[in-house]
Amino acid sequence: MNILIDYLPESVEVNGAEYEINSDFRTSILFELLMQDPEIDETEKALSAIDLYFNNESNKDKRFDTNIFKGLIDAMMWFYGCGKEEAKQSKDEEIEGEEPVRHNELIYNFNFDDEYIYGAYLTQYGIDLNSIDYLHWWKFRAMMKGLDSELQFVKIMGYRAIEITSDMSKSEKKHYTKMKKLYALPDLRTEEEKERDFASTFCM
Questions:
Q1: How far apart are CA 75 and CA 71, in angstroms?
Q2: CA dihedral 114, 115, 116, 122 (to 10 degrees)
Q3: Strands (E), the chain
Q4: What pLDDT sits at residue 201?
Q5: What span, in angstroms and rounded, lies between the C-alpha atoms of 162 and 48?
Q6: DSSP single-letter state for residue 61
Q7: Do 80 and 28 contact (CB within 8 A), yes or no?
Q8: Burial status of residue 179 (CB atoms within 10 A of its CB: 0-12, 13-18, 19 or more)
Q9: Confidence of residue 186 (pLDDT cuts 50, 70, 90)
């Protein structure tokens, strides 16, 4: 899909049937927050996600059909990913020496950065995300990628993403360490993930 030349979808096809999907940016924000919630098990996340994106009463019973359920999940993930096929690596295909991205390595969170994001869109695009009736998720994401580097939200993401290296000066290390602590996101991993990550540090 190409946002420049293709119509933005407001429905998806599953097993030959057309399903209307909640395409407003708020739905996908709620979906992302749902996926990051360590208190909700995977099955409940999947069912809740389908309810978020496909709230038509006639569709709710169909989610319990195995084929349709899987189709709805696949279509939902395609929509959330803005129609882009991202490269996926199984654990067997992971590049040697590379660690998978952990929840606590995210550089933004819609709950904790809501005011920064709101301010960024209002400043750069003149869009009031609180009062706007509708904004397609794909447009929201494209605009997010295009935010100016001078905006506070973009600077904060940069602080979280930056790696403090030995070739930095002492003052740079001190500055970026301070900024990373100041704007650190909470650790969103489950206790099981924390224990696994902790154990892995001693098994290298």
A1: 6
A2: 110
A3: 11-14, 17-20
A4: 37
A5: 34
A6: G
A7: yes
A8: middle
A9: confident
